[in-house]
Amino acid sequence: MGVTLSEKAAKHVANYIAKRGRGVGLRLGVRTSGCSGMAYKLEFADDLAADDLVFESHGVKVLIDPKSLPYLEGTELDFVREGLNEGFKFNNPNVKDECGCGESFNV
Amino acid sequence: MALLQIAEPGESTAPHQHRLAVGIDLGTTNSLVATVRNSVPVVLNDDKGRALLPSVVRYFADGRTVVGHAAQAAQAQDPRNTIASVKRFMGRGLADVAHVESMPYVFEDAPGMVRLRTAQGAKSPVEVSADILRTLRERAEASLGGPLTGAVITVPAYFDDAQRQATKDAARVAGLEVLRLLNEPTAAAIAYGLDNASEGIYAVYDLGGGTFDISILKLSRGVFEVLATSGDAALGGDDFDHRVYCWLIEASRIGPPGLEDMRTLYMEARRAKEVLSAQDAVHIGLKLSGGEEIDVTLTRDAFADMTKKLVEKTLAPTRKALRDAGLSPEEVKGVVMVGGATRMPHVQRAVGEFFGQEPLTNLDPDKVVAIGAAIQANVLAGNRSADEDWLLLDVIPLSLGLETMGGLVEKIIPRNSTIPTARAQEFTTFKDGQTAMAIHVVQGERERVSDCRSLARFELRGIPPMVAGAARIRVSFQVDADGLLSVSAREMGTGIEARIEVKPSYGLGDDEVTRMLREGFEHAQEDMSARALAEQRVEAQRLGEATRAALAADGDLLDPAERAAIDAVLVDLAKAAAGEDTPAIKKAIDVLGRSTDEFAARRMNRSIQRALAGRSVESL
Fold first, then answer.
1. Which residue of A has its CA nearest to B145?
2. Residues 16-75 of A with CB under 8 A from B
3. 83-102 in A: which are within 8 Å (CB) of B?
4. CB environment B16-52: b (16+ within 10 A), e (fewer)
């Protein structure tokens, strides 16, 4: 199981890391906050922490801290385009409900 | 569902906390909008994938307004209601606008700024610019998926206050919060990351469609200062097209073309120019409306040769800018290329030869200004961690200082200091046992408090009693990025502190700033003598006080005759200090010094004897 990237998402992540000039991969996580309980964390990763779980998807390393994994288990990160806007979208099977905008969620 | 962007490590924003900020290059010919996404600055395209928005607005009689490519296409067809290059009119009265007669617009003179009569009534340049900015704002909001927090808008380095204010007003009309106006050359330098580079002099060579600007920047401590600007308002890539167009007509031996053919030939000329930036030769083959066929080949060398004069024309202002800055080409550490016309290899070569180094060309010269503005907007909107350096570009218009003894001004922050800034200076007490100090904050270039503008007064109380000159009071002036001044005074021994906050520029119009500056120069001589007089008076008073205190303590060391002599000198000094004759006061001070030499020596002996009394040599 774990967490995966869609092919499109992986391509974009690899592209961004290349443009940024450094980074070992992508760090996903959750933290408490936001209007509906939990919020996603989506960051570049410069270092690998000792207890990080690493999933490799289409050549991109995805780093997750063990505490976040239960909330993200089975998630696919996709890259979508909506009109002129484009960005990453979490397809997370654990989510029960989320706030209107989807920036925070509950499990 | 919101779409997420990747953040820098540790900087994930809380939901709804990410601030959307953009940088806008509001150009004479084209405008662009850019933002920082996934930590990478990107220019935002429209729904057809085009980055450049032609700075052209067309007003229809039915109230519709069209901005950009569609308006540009209608320029020939509806010239009066299609406004192009409106940037040239920003903050300008009719009298300031050059070549009014050659423009297709109907001008109306209005107080402050010229207006353009269109099918929708008179439009001020601010409104026209606002329509361009609004289009860019809508594009950005559609691209970023939410309302913008703010924008950094670029302006030419030579823009004056009226032009800058007009640009700010246009942004407000367009519903944009201006985080800061940024000089275009500075934005280009930021895009190249020069603000993180080592200190030094940089040149920004900006050859756009119709204008040429050269700026000399000085970078120190992350702050860019514009040392000099120069340029040519009627020289740009279009002139290169024109040269090729003329050559086409000559080489093909055709007569003067009609309007339609002229447009076709111009488009071919432009295409040839662009192709020659990547290839060594270009073939031009087309059939004109009259049946004439054009079939020629233009080589890169021939093109470079026919436009050599144009390239040389850019070097004269470049030389002038360097001369104004008092610099030679070797002192320039880096050269940034801006504007689509700098893609031409022979332009790059000429600039490279002039400065004796390869110019920076790896960013898209059309986008480099917008990208720099976006980077700055991202920082100002607070999307980057606080410990990273802020870029600081505003300056203080008038010096800030405080009143010292004798009604004189001690300048703490000199004018033209970039903000935010902080400066501190130590002051001391004037009288023995003085326990409070009044701090009077003033603004201006004059030497006397009465000629400057009073900003604030406060008192530092609770200074422990000490002899005059022993207390150390540190007064700090701090001006934050918004121009807010806070002044604090702290007695260094005890740490007691008092502070006040003032907004220095409040209520001060440009006229007033100019007047105060001018007066500062005009009265320089007068101010210098006033300062000298006041300083001597303060010195006279200080010495008088000190002598009287010494007489009270150790008067028994003097015989009545000696005492009477010193008393007489003291009276003379007080009399001199009351007058206006600076040298006379100085003389009286010297006399007092000489006539108390003996007394001072005896006091010294007494204190040494007291200190040594009852102590053995070993203990010393």
1. A85
2. 16, 19-20, 26-27, 31, 33-35, 39-46
3. 83-90, 98-99, 101-102
4. eebbbbbbbbbbbbbbbbbbbbbbbbbbbbbeeeebb
Cα–Cα distance between B433 and B447 in angstroms, integer?
Answer: 29
CB distance B566 to B543 below 8 Å: no
Contacts of A101 in chain B (CB under 8 A): 1-2, 15-16
What pLDDT score does B9 carry?
Answer: 80
Q: Which two tokens stand for residue B311?
A: 């390239």
For residue B160, is pLDDT > 80? no
Measure the CA–CA gap between B149 and B129, rounded to whole angstroms.
Answer: 20
Tell me whether B424 touches chain A (CB under 8 Å). Answer: no
Indicate the residue of B2, B6, B46 with minimum beta-carbon distance to A44.
Answer: B6
User: Is the overall model pTM greater than 0.95, yes or no?
Assistant: no
CA distance B479 to B421: 5
Whether A84 and B143 lie within 8 Å, measured CB to CB: yes
Beta-strand relationship, A85-91 and A97-98:
unpaired
Chain B residues 514-573 within an 8 A CB cutoff of chain A: none
**CA-only gyration radius of chain A, Å:** 13
Give the mean model confidence (pLDDT) for residues B139-148. 90
Closest CA to B34 of B331, B372, B410, B318: B372
Architecture of the CATH domain A4-95? Sandwich (2.60)
Domain boundaries, chain A: 4-95
pLDDT tens digit sequence for B350-371? 999 999 999 999 999 999 999 9
The β-bridge partners of B22 are B35, B151
Residues of A in contact with B1 (CB under 8 A): 89, 98, 101-102
> How do residues B395-450 score in pLDDT, each as one tens digit?
666 788 889 888 888 888 887 676 678 888 888 888 888 888 888 988 887 888 88
Cα Rg of chain B (Å, integer): 34
* Residue B432: predicted pLDDT: 86
Whether the predicted pLDDT of A78 surpasses 90: yes
A77 Cβ contact list (under 8 Å, min separation 6) = A3, A4, A5, A6, A9, A28, A62, A88, A89, A90, A91
**Among candidates B236, B285, B278, which has minimal Cα distance to B264?**
B285
Return the structure tokens found at B445: 């270039």
Contact A43 B6 (CB under 8 A): yes
With contacts defined as CB-CB under 8 Å, which chain B residues touch A87?
2-5, 145
Which residues of B are tagged catalytic? 25, 87, 184, 206
DSSP string, chain A: ---EE-HHHHHHHHHHHHHHS--SEEEEEEEE-STTSEEEEEEEESS--TT-EEEEETTEEEEE-TTTHHHHTT-EEEEEEETTEEEEEEE-TT-SEE-TTSSEEE-
Pairing of strands A76-82, A4-5: parallel
Residue A80 near chain B (CB below 8 Å): yes
Write down the residue that tokens 């009351």 correspond to.
Answer: B578
Q: For the segment B76-121, what is each residue's pLDDT rounded down to a tens digit?
A: 888 899 999 899 898 888 877 777 777 788 888 877 788 999 999 9
Asked whether B154 and B26 are in contact (CB, 8 A), the reply is yes
